[in-house]
Structures are given as structure tokens and as C-alpha cells.
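Hey, sorry to bother you again with one of my protein questions. I've been puzzling over a protein and I'd love to understand its fold better. Take your time with it, there's no hurry, and the full record follows here:
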Amino acid sequence: MKIHHIAIICSDYVASKRFYTEIIGLNIIREAYREERKSYKLDLAIGDHYVIELFSFPDPPQRPSRPEACGLRHLAFSVENVTIKRNELISKGLICEEIRIDEFTGKEFFFTQDPDQLPLEFYEI
């Protein structure tokens, strides 16, 4: 029917929580600390649409993302204007790639990454 949510395990919960809420601008639905797992679980939304579960676990293993490895390649967010979004993210200290054009759709997009180097794409709708 549709994707319900995406789960992300981070290495630094405080940094990733700040990144996804203050930099990217996702809204917190709920936050819980699970003592038995020594793990935070943060449910995040775009507007009121639940989209990401952010988890912390003690000492999670690294997952390679470059060169491109098997598995999840990137997470893409729709935006109305990639130039405005790119400038906003740069003003908040992110390093963003140059804007490119999708050869199949003619739409503009660019990439940046989260604190654990998960590639994030911003794609103009």
C-alpha cells in the first residue's frame, strides 16, 4: 500500500536527533529510552506523516556507504525548491553536493549526508 517508515540506527544519538530535527526539520512524534536495550527510539515525522524511527544502540557496527555498497543506497526527501533547501542546509553547516538534473525526469536534486554518512537526497517535486 505504501512505505510505513524507515528505521535508522545512529552512532551518536544526540547528534543525529539534532540533525534530523533542527537541521532537516522533522517533527518529533515521541521519544523513548528503553533501559533493557540501552537504546533510544525517536519517532519522527514530516508534518504529521510518520516517516523515520531513529534508534541508538551501544556500539553499532559501521556500515559502508562509499563506494556504493549493497543495501540501502540513500534516503530521498521531496522538496518544492532544491535551491532554497540546499542554501538552507549549507547555512546550517552541511556540505551539499552541487545540484544535478535527473536524466529521466528532468527534475533537480542534490545529495548531502547525515552524521553517520547515510546519503540523503533532496529531490524537487
User: Anything to note?
Assistant: DSSP finds two helices and eight strands in the chain. The beta strands are 6-10, 27-34, 39-46, 49-56, 75-79, 100-101, 108-113, 119-124. The domain at 1-61 is CATH 3.10.180.10 (2,3-Dihydroxybiphenyl 1,2-Dioxygenase; domain 1).
